[in-house]
């Protein structure tokens, strides 16, 4: 990078956008004024830098002012003021996102974004431009993108921040009227998208979702398990709109134009039209515009003098994007796009040239490009996810040969389907076959012993990782250039991914129970002997519970108890049964919800394991563990209106292992807790598994009456339910109990030392824990 001036301009724009977006108007004005004064002083001292300093200050102030004005519209405009009063309003505006169904607390609702241009409320009317998110009824699902609509509802304040800021939420907007239909280009884009989906409708679920995702980022309906595999293997960028999508689509259009004889400046026109068409297909949301800009930079980087031209273009693209949408500066997606593009432009060329000493050019480029992008993004990915993928480079290398064909074939299928649906189905099938390979790579990669390793998100951990990445970026060309060290380094990377790293001290000696870190869900493991355990609940993700059992060395499971049928307790059942000898599965006597019941029956039947209902009051001994069923009674007690029947039907077990009494409560609600306390007034436990992930809905008297010295909370990091309740945790700690949480400490082990003393140990899992938050009546 011989000329860094445009890179500095891009940094100035980013600084201005952050200043205007994150600070109040007063503080932003003060910072921008200070920058002007400091820059003027610097220019006087060094006249040779005057032009550069003037350019940097102009860009910083311009973007900062735009960001302040935009933030003022969102935070301080009439819509925000009405939302603060929770006013009932009438709105008119343009639909700027595709309607997306979401599962609400009681029924399915539809989320859509509006660019509001007229609002009437509190006896006044305003003409303006403000982004609003609508949470409406089923009628919204049929409203096309680009339509101008009118609706009414109650405004509520929005807690969104950064590039995804909205002025307010509109709730209760069940009715919607279309004032004007979408323009012709929106109708054309919708037709191509519908044609693409129809062309792959006959393929398996993952393929028919991922082909549109590759072409235009439309991943609606993607299975959460597949999405988790893509995250673990660093392939998530394929399921979202990214610069790669645009590079492939527009690159194909340019090749086609060359083939028919287009040359010179007309190629630029074709490329520009291709970019506009891509944005229309993928939608004009900020993330799409950002991806289009980064893809255009990538196309420049592929041309003559691409490294220098590409880096200058990157500075221009960053500045232009932040002038149009300054809120992008605070989004992770924007930062990842810029870092990945910069990594490809700066790191990939020397790495490719080094690898060419002992690899063909095509292979060297295939390795260097994804490796450079991944390394540049690694510190930020670790800061966001708390993990570092060890298989991302290999996974991206394996799928690289089919990503281009799948994307181009998908686009062709969408276009051909407008005139010849039969041929489009054939082309769509070819695209789906390519996608099947990507799914296989993601699935097998995520199953590797150390597909990803946990990494701290504190300042020290991230500084160490950043320095390590910088050192690797500098040393890589020297190492890869060597015919001896290069293949050895690649072999070490592959070996680390294939062989599970040792975890000294785990499982700990004397462990009797482990609460597995499976995200927002429950999965408890009771030791019954060497290599054997009873499993109580299976969490929401099969890979997470399988990882926990493998780390504990559990190969035999005499008994699986599923406390109730909500997804966060049963969806991971396959991870318990796969590859282990499992004798039987016992479940609650209340078959609710039906979807969870069906899932358990299907998974158990597939593995040839019998399913039976627990018997109230039954006591059984399984190896070193004694289990007594305390709940639910027969018949199950009536549940008051508003309570969760499934939660209050949770199996409650009193377990004793090596003299330690442990109460496992599932998601038992206050109603059930009170009845249980009345039935067993003398119930005591050394350890309590806090009901319902620490929900605020608890019977405080029941919890305190147990006199537990240790309380474990199985809960997902940053879950949207507010679990565990700070008040519940505080009340338990005031009783002298020690409260531990899987979201903060990873796997939690209850241990007994040779003298019979009770203790705990924690274990940060090497593999990623699921962050899924399954829906259900009990998850509130």
UniProtKB/TrEMBL annotation:
Topology class, membrane: Multi-pass membrane protein
Domain Metallo-beta-lactamase: from-to ranges: 520-715
Pfam families given in the database record: Competence (PF03772), Lactamase_B (PF00753)
InterPro entries for this protein: ComA-like_MBL, ComEC_N, Competence_DNA_uptake, Metallo-B-lactamas, RibonucZ/Hydroxyglut_hydro
Superkingdom, natural source: Bacteria
Transmembrane segments: 49-69, 238-260, 266-284, 310-328, 363-384, 390-411, 418-440, 452-477
Protein's cellular compartments: Cell membrane
UniProt xrefs under SMART domains: Lactamase_B
Keyword S-adenosyl-L-methionine: no
Protein name: ComEC/Rec2 family competence protein
Organism, scientific name: Nocardioides kribbensis
């Amino acid at each position: 990078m011989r000329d860094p001036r445009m890179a500095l301009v891009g940094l100035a724009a980013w600084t201005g956008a952050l200043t205007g977006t994150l600070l109040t108007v007063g503080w932003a004005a003060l910072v921008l004024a200070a920058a002007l004064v400091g820059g003027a002083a610097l220019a006087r001292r060094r006249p040779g830098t005057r032009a550069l300093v003037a350019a940097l200050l102009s860009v910083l102030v311009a973007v900062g002012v735009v960001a302040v004005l935009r933030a003022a519209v969102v935070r301080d405009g009439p819509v925000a003021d009405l939302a603060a009063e929770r006013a009932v309003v009438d709105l008119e505006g343009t639909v700027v996102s595709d309607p997306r169904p979401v599962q609400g607390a009681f029924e399915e609702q539809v989320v859509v974004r509006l660019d509001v241009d007229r609002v009437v409320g509190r006896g006044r009317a305003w003409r303006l431009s403000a982004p609003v998110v609508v949470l409406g009824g089923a009628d919204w699902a049929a409203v096309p993108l680009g339509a101008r609509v009118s609706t009414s509802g109650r405004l509520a304040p929005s807690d969104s921040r950064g590039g995804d800021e909205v002025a307010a939420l509109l709730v209760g907007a069940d009715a919607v009227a279309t004032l004007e239909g979408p323009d012709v280009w929106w109708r054309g884009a919708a037709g191509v998208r519908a044609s693409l989906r129809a062309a792959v409708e006959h393929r398996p679920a993952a393929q028919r979702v991922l082909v549109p995702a590759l072409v235009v980022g439309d991943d609606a309906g993607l299975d959460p398990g597949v999405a988790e595999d893509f995250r673990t293997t660093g392939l998530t960028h394929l399921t979202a709109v990214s610069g790669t999508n645009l590079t492939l689509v527009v690159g194909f259009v340019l090749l086609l134009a060359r083939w028919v004889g287009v040359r010179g400046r007309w190629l630029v026109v074709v490329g520009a039209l291709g970019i506009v068409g891509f944005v229309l297909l993928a939608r004009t949301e900020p993330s799409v515009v950002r991806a289009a800009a980064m893809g255009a930079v990538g196309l420049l980087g592929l041309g003559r003098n691409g490294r220098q031209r590409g880096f200058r273009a990157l500075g221009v693209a960053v500045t232009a994007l932040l002038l149009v949408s300054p809120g992008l500066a605070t989004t992770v997606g924007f930062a990842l796009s810029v870092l990945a593009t910069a990594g490809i432009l700066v790191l990939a060329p020397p790495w490719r040239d080094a690898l060419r000493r002992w690899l063909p050019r095509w292979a060297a480029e295939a390795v260097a490009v994804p490796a450079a992008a991944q390394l540049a993004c690694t510190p930020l990915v670790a800061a966001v996810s708390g993990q570092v993928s060890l298989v991302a480079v290999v996974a991206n290398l394996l799928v690289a040969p089919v990503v281009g064909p799948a994307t181009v074939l998908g686009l062709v299928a969408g276009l051909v389907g407008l005139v010849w649906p039969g041929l489009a189905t054939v082309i769509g099938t070819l695209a789906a076959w390519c996608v099947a390979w990507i799914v296989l790579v993601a699935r097998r990669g995520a199953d590797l012993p150390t597909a990803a390793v946990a990494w701290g998100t504190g300042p020290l951990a991230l500084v160490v990782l950043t320095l390590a990445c910088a050192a690797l970026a500098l040393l890589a060309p020297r190492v890869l250039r060597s015919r001896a060290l290069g293949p050895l380094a690649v072999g070490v990377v592959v070996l680390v991914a294939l062989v599970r790293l040792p975890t000294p001290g785990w499982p700990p000696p004397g462990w009797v129970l482990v609460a597995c870190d499976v995200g927002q869900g429950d999965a408890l493991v009771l030791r019954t002997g060497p290599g054997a355990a009873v499993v109580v609940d299976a969490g929401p993700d099969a890979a997470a519970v399988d990882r926990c059992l493998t780390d504990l060395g559990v190969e035999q499971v005499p008994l699986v108890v599923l406390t109730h049928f909500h997804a966060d307790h049963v969806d991971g059942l396959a991870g318990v049964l796969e590859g282990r000898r499992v004798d039987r599965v016992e479940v609650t006597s209340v078959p609710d919800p039906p979807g969870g019941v069906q899932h358990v029956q299907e998974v158990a039947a597939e593995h040839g394991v019998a399913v039976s209902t627990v018997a109230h009051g039954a006591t059984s001994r399984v190896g070193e563990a004694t289990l007594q069923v305390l709940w639910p009674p027969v018949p199950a007690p009536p549940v008051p209106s508003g309570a969760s029947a499934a939660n209050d039907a949770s199996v409650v077990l009193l377990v004793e292992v090596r003299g330690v009494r442990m109460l496992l409560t599932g998601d038992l609600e206050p109603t059930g807790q009170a009845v249980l306390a009345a039935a067993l007034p003398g119930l005591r436990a050394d350890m309590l598994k806090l009901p319902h992930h620490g929900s605020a809905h608890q019977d405080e008297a029941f919890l305190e009456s147990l006199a537990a010295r240790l309380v474990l909370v199985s809960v997902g990091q940053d879950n949207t339910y507010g679990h565990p309740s700070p008040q519940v945790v505080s009340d338990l700690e005031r009783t002298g109990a020690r409260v531990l949480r899987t979201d903060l400490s990873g796997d939690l082990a209850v241990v007994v030392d040779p003298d019979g003393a009770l203790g705990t140990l924690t274990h940060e899992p090497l593999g990623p824990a699921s962050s899924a938050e399954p829906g259900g009546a009990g998850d509130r």
